[in-house]
Amino acid sequence: MKIGIIASELYDGGEITWTKVLCSCLLSLEEIKVINIYVSKDYDMWVREFADINKAIVNKVDWNFRFGINYKIKIIKVIIKILTLFKNSFVKRIFKFQKLDNNDLIISPYVSTELLFTSKKYIVCPQDTRHLHKNNLKIGIMEKLKKYYAEFFYSLRLKNAYRIVVEANYIKEDLMRYYKIPEDRIFIIVSPILISKYEIKEERYLVIRNKYNLPSKFIFYPAHFIEDKNHIKLVKALKIIKDKYNEIIPLILVGSKKNNFDNVMKAIEKLNLERQVKYLGYIPDEDMPYLYKLSTALVMPTLFESVSMPIWEAFYLGVPVVSSNVFALPEQVGDAGLLFDPFNIEDMAEKIYK
Question: Angle of helix 261-270 relative to helix 231-245, nearest 10 degrees?
Answer without folding.
Answer: 10
